[in-house]
Amino acid sequence: MTTLDFTPAPGAAPYPRMVLAQAGAEMRSILRNGEQLLLTLIIPVLLLVGFSLAPLIDIGGGSRVAFLAPGVLALAIMSTAFTGQAIATGFERRYGVLKRLGATPLSRSGLMLAKTLAVLAVEVLQVAVIVAVALALGWRPEGSLAAAALLILLGTAAFSGLGLLMAGLLRAEATLAAANLVYLLLLAAGGVIFPLAKFPAGVRPVLELLPISALTGGLRAVLTQGAALPLGALAVLAVWAVVSLGLAARTFRWE
Length: 255
Description:
Layout (H helix, E strand, L loop, with lengths): L14 H18 L1 H20 L10 H31 L2 H6 L5 H29 L8 H25 L2 H18 L14 H4 L3 H13 L7 H21 L4
Helix pairs in contact: 1-5, 2-3, 2-5, 3-5, 3-6, 3-7, 3-9, 5-6, 6-9, 6-10, 9-10
């Protein structure tokens, strides 16, 4: 007769399982938060529709929706990976959620990876909705979808690192104010709505080094102009991703 062994076998779950479980919890939290959905989905769609239909901006000729759609995609990526994630993580630290996670086997790198995976899952929904709206407005994208996907992945990594870096260093209220301020500044100066060519020549090279400018310009070159993978934009995003994620991993605090 076989004897069943009910002896407890304590131990941490495998690293991939922990990360995926945390990513699922993060994704459900984002989708249940009405303020997050307003920031990450509704505002980008309203900007796309409003500025495409109304002649409020001078893009120097060509289709307004063809100019705006890649920029709004970049804005949506920034909204989710940077602004929403920074604010949510900051308040998770304030309310002790991160402190409790710190008592689990989940490491700082595992938490950051889980949050990034959750952001990517939400971005799939964002891209689908924004592209559908843009197509209904007459947008006809060109170029390589694989190149656009690579730009979005690097942009997500860069903005995610910046969001986690801010949330790990600042208090929740300061994170809320700073993340919203940065969002507005990058919306205005990142080429999303207003072409960078409209800015003074002296500041243009600096603006082109911003992650939102690199992502917007790269997506615009690929999807509107049908260009090959823009290596300059790719390099800017890669540097931001490596530096921000590296600093976030070293400085992130559980409490």
